[in-house]
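Morning - FE2/S2 (inorganic) cluster inputs below, output right after.
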Amino acid sequence: MAEKITFTVNRVPRTVEIEGWEKLIDVLRDQLGLTGTKQGCDDYSCGACTVLLNGKAENSCKVFAKKLNGAEVLTIEALAQGTKLHPIQEGLIEAGAVQCGFCIPGIAMRLYSLFERKLDASETEIIDALEEHLCRCTGYESILEGAKLAQKKMKAQN
Ligand code: FES
Ligand code: FES
């Protein structure tokens, strides 16, 4: 049976009608038109669907929409400011990590969650965070390089 939920997406309160089976990714993509969040698998293994849920990186394909009342969600659409990309996006692009780009929104949100919490994260911590993500195109080295470049850019802005 359909029910209404109200939650905040990219700092804007939204009320949507959902079915009990719907996941956060369905609401974001199909109801709110936020298609930057990608679905890359059906077994919770790719990380492409990662968003921030109440400040923590989560696979949006795992979260039932009915649990979202009052929650705060941030998606990839919240990172750039107008035409100015976020340093994380700049870093990944400059390091050549973006090939088809399908995995990148999830990776960017994972890095955002890490660096917002711990801007001086070690290389090991960055690698650990990236382990949640699959990329079919790029060598993971350029993704790591992009992450480190992003960290440097964010530090310079601080
Ligand atoms: S679509 Fe969510 S982990 Fe792959
Ligand atoms: S850039 Fe294509 S899947 Fe990662």
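Note: Residues 87-157 form a domain with the DNA polymerase; domain 1 fold (CATH 1.10.150.120).

O.
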